[in-house]
Structure formats: C-alpha cells, structure tokens
Amino acid sequence: MCDKREHQGDKSNRELLVELMESYGDMVLRVAFTYVKERQLAEDISQEVFIRCYQSLDSFENRSSYKSWLYRITVNCCKDYVKSWSFRNLISKSLVKESDQNIDAVDSQVVKKEERDLLFKQVLKLSVKLREVLIFYYYEDLTVDEAANVLEVNPNTVKSRLYRARKALKNHLEGGMVLEK
C-alpha cells in the first residue's frame, strides 16, 4: 500500500478509503480501545475516524503519511468522545453491565486478544497521558518523535511520560502501588 497521495494514481477516494481501512483499521481500533476501554465504543469511534478521513481526503496535503494522519484523527476523535457528556455520564453503567457479546469480526478478535493480556490490562489502568505514550511507543512502534508529533507535545514530554508509565507499571506488577489516576 502506498502511503502518499501522489502515488495513488487514478484511484477514487472510495478505493483509497477501502485501502486505508484494510491497512490501518486494526491500528485505529486498538488506539480507540485504549482511550474508551470498551469494544463497542472503540468500534464506533473507528467508524467515525474513517468517516472523517473520507470527508477530508481531498484536503490531505502529504505533509505526513496516511498512518500519521489517521493516528491524529483517531486521537482527536477519542479525546472528543472522552470529553463528551455521554462518555462521562454513561460509561459507568456500561462497565457495571459488561456483557461479553460474541462478535466474530476480525477487529473484535484483535481487541479480545489484547483484553486478555495482563500487561495490557495494567496499561489500561494508567492515566490517558501515560497510557497513550505507551500504546504509541510499544504497541504501535512509533518513535518518541513520531509519538510527540501525533500527540502534539514536546519529545521530552513523551520521554518523561514513558518513564513515569514504566515506573507505575513496574510498581503495580511487583505488587506495589496503585497506578496513577
């Protein structure tokens, strides 16, 4: 898959969107899940990300890769959702009634696998600022500079958050302290 618009040739926006969804759909879903911690909400946000992507394809300026661009859209969608009234007021109800629906979609299987991973569960207990740098750095294999670009912060801020997140995880996994809120 080419990552720059100029190499897309005669592809329509619809064909390009399909390629982007196939190439980056799992990534978008994983990132969304780290923010909202619920499979169905992450899937809804993923759909919103690709709707925004499709609506903005004509204005994509090739200043970054499609992957970086999708990270930024995903982070913005997630932050908008987490700040929303419905998330703050309804999330507790869904956590109390966490039913395990049998969804056979590939995207759901990816999230399910990660949900079972002890370390990933501990990462999800971290604050959003610590959690997002760990996800981008370790799960999405971004460099410190790439994570800083996606999160629109200084690279030293990413390094500091990585240090604090590792320390919090180490303490918790060793049976120590409660993770940061």
UniProtKB/TrEMBL annotation:
Classification via NCBIfam families: PRK09415.1, sigma70-ECF
Database matches in CDD domains: Sigma70_r4
Family: Belongs to the sigma-70 factor family. ECF subfamily.
Residues in RNA polymerase sigma factor 70 region 4 type domain copies: 121-169
Keywords of the record: Sigma factor, Transcription, Transcription regulation
A single BP term in Gene Ontology: DNA-templated transcription initiation
Record organism: Lentibacillus amyloliquefaciens
Domain RNA polymerase sigma-70 region: from-to ranges: 20-84
GO terms of molecular function: DNA binding; sigma factor activity
Name of the protein in its database record: RNA polymerase factor sigma C
Pfam families reported in the protein's UniProt record: Sigma70_r2, Sigma70_r4_2
